[in-house]
Amino acid sequence: MRFAPLPAGLPATVPFVGPETLERQRGAPFAARLGANESAFGPSPLAARAMREAVGQIWKYGDATSHDLTHALAAHHRVAPENIMVGEGIDGLLGNLVRLMIAPGNAVVTSDGAYPTFNYHVSGFGGVLHKVPYRDDAEDPEALLDSAHATGARLIYLANPDNPMGSWHDGAVIEAMLDRLPPDCLLVLDQAYAEFAPASAIPAIAADDPRVIRMRTFSKGYGLAGARIGYALGAPDLIAGFDRIRNHFGVNRIAQAGALAALADQGWLAHVVAEVAAARDRIASIGAANGLTALPSATNFVALDTHRDGAHARALIAALATEGVFARMPGVAPLDRCIRISAAPLHELDVLEQVLPRALATITRA
Fold first, then answer.
1. pLDDT by position in tens, the chain (length 366)
2. CA pair distance 301, 35, nearest whole angstrom
3. Which of 94, 89, 88 is nearest to 251 (CA)?
4. Taking the alpha carbons of 247, 253, 258, 261 in that order, is the dihedral positive or negative?
5. Nearest in space to 31 (alpha carbons), one of 287, 276, 350
6. How far is Cα 222 from Cα 259, in angstroms, rounded to an integer?
7. Contact by Cβ (8 Å): 269, 195
8. Which runs of E-coded beta strand occur in the chain?
9. What pairs with residue 158 in β-bridges?
10. How many CA atoms lie within 13 A of 28 on its CB side?
């Protein structure tokens, strides 16, 4: 098969191997699905009902402008509809953003070990990635800015709160970054976990600020990961640019209905946030009982420090999978000394509590 030159030179890999693929490989379902940072607490019952009611209309394409959801989001964030772009989750929006902003050879700055799907899009469109290390298990704004100035970067990617470590910066740190961006550089602020973060972590940024685009999702706090729906907040000229290249019917009708109802049910979101906080405490307790230390987290997962190296953590992930627990880990040292456990209901964390000692014992004997 003769691919075009750019994709022909890329590795035939995907950023993540999904849990369903792993279940097929092991020949059994996982008893605890704790690796994808989904919300096992589920969507709002109102959102579930709205999606069921939308099924009968699925013969129609979804509204290409996501009009009702766009206007509801604008009201929720107290911005204009022109500041909102709805898309197929943050992943879809990141792909469109990179396509819109990056030409082959353009520099892009990110952290080494940060969200790999962003890197996947940059490489796929011919951008040149420049990575800086984490500092104290958190992304390093100073290093990101220094690299952007040194390389003439068009984009800086920063997640706050961060995946995979769960760490976060105060919003004032993010605000200060904007004044130090190189000319013609856009800050891509991934806020997938914003609903779980302290209020102080959310920067006060004007919706019309052309120096930044913020990404939000319904996958985490709202429990709609399978619906694939998220949105970007940015300056109108930038947001309008998405219409030049996006898949205009990419957001399906059921997802739009579910997201609209979920947004309206902030009481359910508050319930989920409280459940996640309790689950983080439980994960930390389970880890501590087994010699692992929970890092502070402002997300719906906890990074557990094994106090060993990446090889040890990788063996532990494999041992947990054998015991029926799906978990993941950071991919770059020294972050890869940790394993990452998603918040989940009690019965799944009960499974983790039961099997973690066995998994540790298995790799100790090996």
1. 899 999 999 988 777 889 999 999 999 999 999 999 999 999 999 999 999 999 999 999 999 999 999 999 999 999 999 999 999 999 999 999 999 999 999 999 999 999 999 999 999 999 999 999 999 999 999 999 999 999 999 999 999 999 999 999 999 999 999 999 999 999 999 999 999 999 999 999 999 999 999 999 999 999 999 999 999 999 999 999 999 999 999 999 999 999 999 999 999 999 999 999 999 999 999 999 999 999 999 999 999 999 999 999 999 999 999 999 999 999 999 999 999 999 999 999 999 999 999 999 999 876
2. 9
3. 88
4. positive
5. 350
6. 8
7. yes
8. 32-33, 84-87, 107-111, 128-132, 155-159, 186-190, 212-217, 230-233, 293-294, 301-305, 325-326, 338-342
9. 189
10. 9
Token duo for residue 21 = 């693929």
Which one-letter amino acid corresponds to residue 343? A
